[in-house]
Amino acid sequence: MGLGIFGRKPFIMTLAVRQGYDSNVYTSPDNPESSMYTNIGSGLSYSVGTPRLQLATNLGGGVTYYYNRPGDSVDYNGNFAMSANYRATPRLNLSLSTSTAYLSQPDLATVGGSNHQNGDYLVSNTTLSTAYQWSEIISSITSYNFTALYYLDNDMNQNQGNISQTLAQSMLWLWKPKTTLVAEYRANTITYYGTDLDQLGNYFLVGFDQIFNPRFFWNARFGVQVNFNNNPTDGQSTYVGPFMESTLRYQFATATGLSWNMRYGTEASGLDDVSQRQTFRTGLVLTHAFTARLSGDFSMSYLCNYYDQSGVIDSYIENIVDFSVGLSYQVNRFVALQGGYQYTIDMAPENTDRAYSRNIVFVGANFSF
């Protein structure tokens, strides 16, 4: 007799060892400290599925030792992620995705996070959603997102740590066989742990989901964002501005894939006593398998942050460019050799305390069991 989804245990265990060099371990604008480093990480993933339920989990962690970093020479990191999708009825679909990471280095992909090294922190993101098919051409999606950013440094956390919650309701109309039109409303609250920078955001959006062919997909949302902001210096204020986000994925062939995303709107500023920043961010990822064993990837991201709050901060623009390249060679089904390079530059001519550049290069090996 079968045991359903618990009848097998498709575990995958991984171990990674890297040796690298970091030219600016503290993302300093002046007199950067450089160091060689060694990173050891491990992970465990598990996935199961039936025609109605799919579940995937991943647990990982690691330690990085810097040979020449003043002060604390060790960084720790850990992460947990889980996704689940359940088709409750032919019309109703339920999904959950959650991830929590303990990090020491800045992650430019975190919306509203800091672009600089500010010590250890936790970032957690959970989304619950329900999709219901009302008719052949009309459907709806209701979702709730909870995001928490927590810094272990108490002063940093009191000024910048926050919880963001978003409730969204979308109505979808299958206009053509490959084109779905979307109307969406989002309500977002950002609550700070120790300072009066709380926000209430409202988003009124329209957009589309377009399937050009099985390999080419594009969705986009455009509209207006209305924020009601608190500030400990100048009290309450209202922001009205445009908002957009877009995701494009194209699988050129079995061996080559491309993804491109864009977003423009406000974010948590990442600065003390500043309500928000206006941010345009875009990212491009290209993957290619040169042979059955040799593969490579290239990624590039760009952020343009505009800080402008009269009486609180002098207005200025900050541009951040980050790109990386990597190669992986699969020796056998258990061992892969890897190498990579990452370059980050933060340019803020009107606020030189924010500017820095950083080079990271590494070689290593991944082991799978």
Descriptors:
mainly beta; 18-stranded antiparallel barrel; disordered N terminus; 369 residues; Porin; single chain
Give the SSE map.
Blueprint: E1 11-22, E2 35-49, E3 53-66, E4 74-87, E5 92-103, E6 121-133, E7 138-151, H1 154-160, E8 162-176, E9 179-192, E10 199-213, E11 216-229, E12 237-253, E13 256-267, E14 277-289, E15 294-309, E16 313-330, E17 335-347, E18 356-368
Antiparallel strand pairs: 1-2, 1-18, 2-3, 3-4, 4-5, 5-6, 6-7, 7-8, 8-9, 9-10, 10-11, 11-12, 12-13, 13-14, 14-15, 15-16, 16-17, 17-18
Structural overview:
By secondary structure, this protein is mainly β. The chain has a single domain, classed as Porin (Beta Barrel). It is 2% helix and 69% strand. The chain contains 1 helix and 18 strands. It has an 18-stranded antiparallel beta barrel. The longest helix is centred in the middle third of the chain and has 7 residues, at 154-160. It is globular. The two termini are 28 Å apart. Residues 1-7 have low confidence and may be disordered.
Can you identify the CATH class?
Mainly Beta
Rounded mean pLDDT score:
93
Question: Order of helices and strands, N to C?
Answer: EEEEEEEHEEEEEEEEEEE
Please state the overall shape, judged from the principal axes of the Cα atoms. Answer: globular
Report the sheet-strand fraction.
over 45%
Tell me which CATH architecture applies here.
Beta Barrel
Could you tell me the CATH topology label.
Porin
Count the beta strands: 18
CA-atom Rg in angstroms: 22 Å
What is the quaternary state of this protein?
A: single chain
Class from helix and strand fractions? mainly beta
Count of helical stretches: 1
- The parts where pLDDT drops under 50 for at least 5 residues are 1-7
The total number of structural domains is: 1
Our measurement of the CA-to-CA distance between the termini, rounded to an integer number of angstroms, reads 28 Å
Helicity, as a percent range: under 10%
The major beta sheet can be summarized as: 18 strands, antiparallel, barrel
